[in-house]
Amino acid sequence: MRVHPRAPRNGVDGVHAGTLRIRVTAPPVDGAANAAVVSVLAEWLGVAARDVRIVSGGGARTKLVEVDGVPADVVRRRATEE
After folding, report:
1. pLDDT by residue (tens digit) across 31-57?
2. Total-model pTM
3. Phi, psi dihedrals of residue 53, rounded to the nearest 5°
4. Where are the domains of the chain?
């Protein structure tokens, strides 16, 4: 996934070039953007925030995220519907 911090609003932009794009208003300082990514994804997928984990890329815009209880194909399908 690719994250755009300091965006005007939070949200999921769908898939661009094979990567899920997410906007967060939080700045990339002290983990604020990462916390916002977890929150936005949890709300978008309808799961608790504790079920969303950033596996790699905590300090980068490109991140690998794991979501408990939601298969990857469901995320892909949901992203293409947006």
Report:
1. 999 999 999 999 999 999 999 999 999
2. 0.91
3. -130, 140
4. 2-81
What amino acid occupies position 69?
A: G
Q: What are phi and psi of 44, to 5 degrees?
A: -65, -35
Token pair of 21, please? 């794009």
Question: Rounded CA gap, 30 and 70, in Å?
Answer: 28
Tell me the backbone φ, ψ of residue 45, rounded to 5 degrees: -90, -10
Secondary structure of the chain as H, E, C letters: CEEECCCCCCEEEEEECCEEEEECCCCCCCCHHHHHHHHHHHHHHCCCHHHEEEEECCCCCECEEEECCCCHHHHHHHHHHC
For domain 2-81, say whether CATH 3.30.1200.10 is its number.
Answer: yes
Residue 9: other Cβ atoms inside 10 A: 7
- Confidence (pLDDT) at 79: 84
